[in-house]
Design brief:
The chain is of the alpha/beta class. The chain is 42% helix and 18% strand.
């Protein structure tokens, strides 16, 4: 192995995806994800089933990541893993495996905050994608999280806004469940929304002061609206599905954009980066690109492969920490409520 090359193995197991990636000097050589389809029939992630699936998947996923990268475990310089936040049972599988592998290879172990990783995924070397400079505002939007973070350096991040109840991804999924769509519903709503009228139906935006979010009231409003319409016309959903999805997505995007505009006004920072699974939504991406011309923002959209939970983002944080010799001790524990 060349001395100039640094190889980092990243392991991600915070929820229902078992993922492993190998990074060489900021460049991703492999990024393997094993999805757990078992949760689809339950309409959401079942923690006990998720942890069992991680136990089955982690060895073959890591083996495949090393094979695709064209290296062996003996070439690794460090093992990075998701310490939290996430489902405790899922985190324990990844944490235990990473600790054992690092110990056996006698190489550094590096703990990674899952939320920081979504932000720092923008620093993965990827053709066609530019990196933000500091400071910038990061909006992390997923099934479990909705946060606005002021990023002043790789590891100097301050949460300036977050959801006080449900995450934006949950709002998409619960709305989809009301409409009879599958899980996760976000991608399906996005697809149908492209065919509909975004102002066909009006949903009231929650009034939350400052930069915090609330989506529970919106979910309730959508539920009551659908129940009322279906009572009057049993075929209402079937006849209006595109317009309903377009109107729901339009409302959610407006909520997010209103908060971003306020964040820019309060911080005087106009570089905006998004991350998390919901950042793959085409409507949100289009709204951000439009904001560049309308408000003079600089916007940064991650590659789609780095939006959902993945190990590449864990590996890049591991690489940045490795360069600073920020290693973890073998006594480190998983933390389901880990904060930035």
């Amino acid at each position: 192995m060349s001395l100039k090359n640094t190889y980092i193995l990243g392991i991600e197991s915070s929820c229902d995806d078992t993922a492993a990636a190998v990074l060489r000097n900021g460049e991703i050589l492999s990024n393997v994800v094993a999805n757990q389809t078992i949760h689809e029939s339950y309409g959401g992630v079942v923690p006990e089933l998720a942890s069992r699936a991680h136990q089955q998947n982690i060895v073959p996923v890591v083996d495949q990541a090393l094979h695709k990268a064209g290296i062996s475990c003996n070439d690794l310089n460090a093992v990075a893993f998701t310490q939290g936040p996430g489902l405790m049972g899922s985190l324990l599988v990844g944490t235990s495996f990473a600790k054992s592998l690092a110990y056996g290879l006698d190489i550094p172990l590096i703990d990674v905050n899952h939320m920081q990783a979504h932000v720092l995924a923008h620093f993965i070397e990827k053709d066609g994608y530019k990196k933000p400079s500091f400071p910038f505002i990061a909006m992390t939007i997923s099934g479990g999280h909705t946060q606005i973070v002021l990023v002043e350096d790789y590891f100097k991040m301050t949460i300036i806004g977050e959801t006080i109840d449900d995450a934006v991804g949950e709002a998409f999924d619960k709305s989809g469940k009301i409409l009879g769509l599958g899980y996760p519903a976000g991608p399906e709503i996005d697809k149908l929304a492209k065919l509909g009228n975004p102002i066909a139906f009006k949903f009231t935006k929650p009034k939350v002061k400052g930069l915090n979010f609330s989506f529970s009231g919106l979910k309730t409003a959508i539920l009551y609206f659908i129940q009322k319409q279906v009572k009057e016309n049993p075929r209402f959903i079937e006849e209006n599905i595109n317009d309903i999805c377009a109107s729901i997505q339009y409302t959610i995007i407006n909520i997010l954009m209103d908060k971003l505009k306020l964040a820019v006004s309060e911080t005087r920072v106009s570089q905006i980066a998004i991350g998390g699974g919901v950042s793959a939504n085409s409507g949100i991406r289009n709204a951000l690109k439009e904001a560049e011309g309308q408000y003079g923002w600089s916007t940064y959209l991650p590659a789609l492969e780095f939006t959902t939970d993945n190990a590449a983002m864990i590996a890049i944080v591991g690489y940045l920490k490795f360069n600073n010799k920020q290693y973890a001790k073998q006594s480190i524990m998983a933390s389901s409520r880990l904060k930035i």
